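Subject: for your reference before the review

Hello V.,

The reviewers asked for a structural picture of the protein, and I figured it would be easier to keep everything in one thread rather than splitting it across files. Below is the amino acid sequence we used in the manuscript, unchanged from the supplementary table.
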Amino acid sequence: MADEVTNPLKRRLPDGIVPEEEVARTEDRWVAIMLAMLEAMMAVIVVTGATHALNPPSNVETIDPTTLHLGGEFAESNLGTATEPDGSVTVRLIAEQYAFVPDCAQVPADTPVKFRLTSPDVIHGFLLPATNVNTMVVPGFIAEVRTSFSRAGVYNMPCNEFCGGGHHGMWARVRVVPREQFPQLAANERTSCAQQ
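And here is what came back from the structure prediction:
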């Protein structure tokens, strides 16, 4: 008892107060746990980044951005909407500073639609609000997204990745027409949203 009076550090603490040594030990443990978690997350990021740099994810299609317009899938005559043998629709677009080519694509409602895009210059974004379509369009690669539209209407399509000074004006449209009306559209009408 006399020892407690002479040395206040050895005095018994009231109930509910934790000794300073125990608080310090607990804080040290939490710091060690947090550092271990941080190291584990950094290791995952480094390993994932290195493996994806060596072997990109599967189904990556590449294309030469300097010659994509000269022939093949993204030649000017192949752009726009095309009907596939299985009845689905493929829309091919090029995103370039500061426009989508073509700037409109007509597709049928209640039909599987596949968008295939590429870019010859910088990274662009492709977004169709109120749908599951949102992807980056990277030069040298072909982006592919699939969706379907349940009702007719016009969907505005902004570039949602900053691509330069004219980015704010980079818009296109997807016009969804009734399924029975789509086969009657000529090839040039499928790339225009002008009223017929």
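For the response letter, the relevant points are probably these. The helical segments are 2-6, 20-54. The chain has two helices and eleven strands.

Happy to draft the paragraph if you're swamped.

O.
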